[in-house]
Write a structure and sequence with these properties.
Blueprint (H helix, E strand, L loop, with lengths): L8 E10 L6 E10 L5 E10 L6 E2 L8 E4 L12 E2 L9 E6 L12 E10 L5 E11 L5 E2 L7 E3 L7 E3 L8
Length: 171
């Protein structure tokens, strides 16, 4: 308020400084009130803009609950689509961890291993997670020498060899 002017002109000017991560900033806002006589007064306001929310999956239902790893092949672990309230999609990433402590790209032991996918934004905020059970079926005889794609003997004798990716009947 002002003694001489009931309606002073109020303006502000921002100085934006980088914050602790790409989606954070510090705004130094200087407010100025000027009355009809040209008298002015200023006040500094500090505004902290923080990104504290992690990314989310766009379609959580598309993430499989389990994946079978057959014939010694490395399982293909999907990278789910995600979104974030602050960061562009291209800046988001997924971290894969395994229940046995090994890298997700390491060979899997026979049996079940749980893989956890966690979505992150550039500010390091962890968001959505998904657990996928990798069921590494005990290796069956495979002949890698026959070509780049393994051929596997599913019957235990030499009359049934299939190539990885072949469709098998249900029975």
């Amino acid at each position: 308020s002002d003694n001489c002017d009931p309606d002073p002109v109020v303006t502000y000017q921002d100085n934006v400084l980088p914050g602790s991560c790409p989606q954070a900033s510090i705004i130094e806002r200087t407010w100025t009130a000027t009355d009809a006589c040209g008298n002015s007064s200023t006040c500094l306001q500090i505004i902290n803009v923080d990104d504290t929310e992690g990314p989310t999956w766009l379609d959580p239902g598309s993430i499989p609950e389990s994946i079978d790893a057959l014939c010694g092949l490395q399982p293909l672990i999907p990278t789910p689509e995600m979104e974030d309230n602050c960061a562009p999609v291209d800046d988001l990433y997924v971290v894969c961890t395994r229940s046995d402590g090994l890298e997700c790209s390491d060979p899997y032991p026979p049996g079940e291993t749980t893989v956890t996918l966690t979505a992150y934004d550039p500010c390091g905020n962890a968001g959505a997670t998904a657990d996928i059970v990798i069921d590494f079926i005990t290796p069956i005889p495979c002949d890698i020498e026959m070509g780049a794609i393994p051929f596997c003997n599913l019957s235990g004798n030499d009359d049934l060899w299939v190539q990885a990716g072949d469709l098998m009947p249900d029975d």
